[in-house]
Amino acid sequence: MKKVEAYIRAERLEAVKKALEKVGVTGMTVCEARGRGEESGIELEYRGKKVRVDLLPRIKVEIFVEDDIVERVVKAIIEAAYTGKPGDGRIFVLPVVEAYKIRTKEKLGK
Question: What pLDDT, on a 0 to 100 scale, did the predictor assign at position 18?
């Protein structure tokens, strides 16, 4: 089992959710996040003055999937989140040692 953690633009969330549903993933956790990457922020004009915003709003999507569909999940996220501009995001794939369902007390995964 793997954890796929994606940081994406907020406006791409609906497209990512639809793409994940197409590959059979319906369960996910979505959180608001702030951060910066290579673009290291942007300059805006506020009341006639230039203001540097260095932590931009992002969405963090966490998904837990079996090893055999990780590549399809990553590909779906990349295709749905892509704009071609700096700040499109990052995807991290991490191993999950153990997982349990609280209600049934069953161990998940193979």
Answer: 97
Q: What are the boundaries of each domain within the chain?
A: 2-95
Structure tokens at 88: 């499109």
Instruction: Please state which of the four CATH numbers 3.30.470.20, 3.30.70.120, 3.40.50.1220, 1.20.810.10 is assigned to the domain occupying 2-95.
Output: 3.30.70.120
CA distance 61 to 30: 5
Identify the pLDDT of residue 41.
67
User: Predicted confidence band at 98 (pLDDT cuts at 50, 70, 90)?
Assistant: very high
As to burial, measured by CB atoms within 10 angstroms (0-12 exposed, 13-18 middle, 19+ buried), residue 2 is buried
Q: Is the C-alpha dihedral spanning 102, 106, 107, 109 positive or negative?
A: negative
pTM, full prediction? 0.84
Burial level of 78, CB count in 10 A (0-12/13-18/19+)?
Answer: middle
pLDDT at 47 (0 to 100)? 79
